[in-house]
Specification:
four-stranded antiparallel beta sheet, two-stranded antiparallel ribbon, alpha+beta
């Protein structure tokens, strides 16, 4: 979990390593490289029978979001126009987190250090962490 104080701090190498290991299970489960719509769908398949997907944990106050492992920043999932999205959507990511866009300007890949998960009470949880926490 990441607190707001942690998010605003400049991360040292040691903190970056800790964050990477916290999210290790989630990152290992998806293809190496950039987060894409395909990898988001794959994650949904992996977590389909758990509270690690938006449809299963929304009623408990969990919001889909993203963590940038390099900076510790978190962002709620948003549509391209800035409205909050009820599922993981790439179009609303901060520009610095975007690796590639298609010809129409839609995000097709996020930077590799961006992982999907959930935000609750200002804290980021990986899909694994959210599934475990929401099950209790």
């Amino acid at each position: 979990m990441y607190t707001e104080q942690f998010q605003t701090q400049v991360l040292s190498q040691a903190l970056s390593s800790t964050a990477a290991s916290t999210c290790g299970n989630d990152r290992e489960r998806r293809m190496q490289g950039a987060l894409t719509e395909l990898t988001l769908r794959h994650e949904n398949e992996i977590y389909a029978e758990t509270r690690g997907i938006s449809q299963s944990n929304r009623s408990l106050g969990w919001r889909p979001g993203y963590l940038n492992l390099a900076t510790g920043e978190i962002e709620l999932s948003r549509f391209g126009d800035g409205r909050l999205a009820p599922i993981h959507v790439l179009d609303g990511l901060p520009e610095a987190w975007v690796q590639r866009r298609d010809a129409d300007g839609h995000v097709i890949a996020a930077e590799p250090e961006v992982v999907s998960g959930f935000i609750r009470a200002g804290q980021f949880y990986t899909r694994d962490q959210a599934a475990r926490a929401a099950a209790h």
